[in-house]
Specification:
Blueprint lengths: L5 H8 L3 H25 L7 H15 L3 E4 L2 E4 H23 L7
Antiparallel strand pairs: 1-2
Length: 106
């Protein structure tokens, strides 16, 4: 709501770009580390290459603020990283189950 108030936005507009850049770098770093903490607390097995690849895609796409344009829609940052992680995890699980060696019958 404060962003809609010009009197609040004016002082924010006077902050130099370098300072805002540093603040956003710290902010994105904190978000990335908090995500990693959640993975550690939930004991996600990063020895599994599928989990490792999924986490790396989500972390890099989200923290680097990648952007994709689909028609008039724009997806970026955390939303795109989350979507990428979901798709990456499902595709890799599907591929790993189709690559699994057949078990001999008893």
């Amino acid at each position: 709501m404060l962003g809609l108030c010009p009197k609040f936005g004016a002082p924010i507009g006077t902050i130099p770009a370098g300072v805002l850049g540093g603040a956003t770098t710290v902010l994105y770093g904190i978000i990335a580390i908090l995500g990693a903490r959640i993975w550690v607390e939930e004991k996600v097995n990063f020895r599994d290459p599928i989990n490792l690849m999924t986490a790396s895609v989500a972390l890099i796409v989200g923290a680097a603020n990648y952007t994709i344009h689909l028609g008039s829609y724009e997806f970026n940052g955390i939303a795109l990283g989350s979507f990428g992680a979901i798709v990456c995890h499902q595709v890799l699980r599907l591929l790993s189950s189709s690559q699994a060696p057949a078990r001999p019958e008893a």
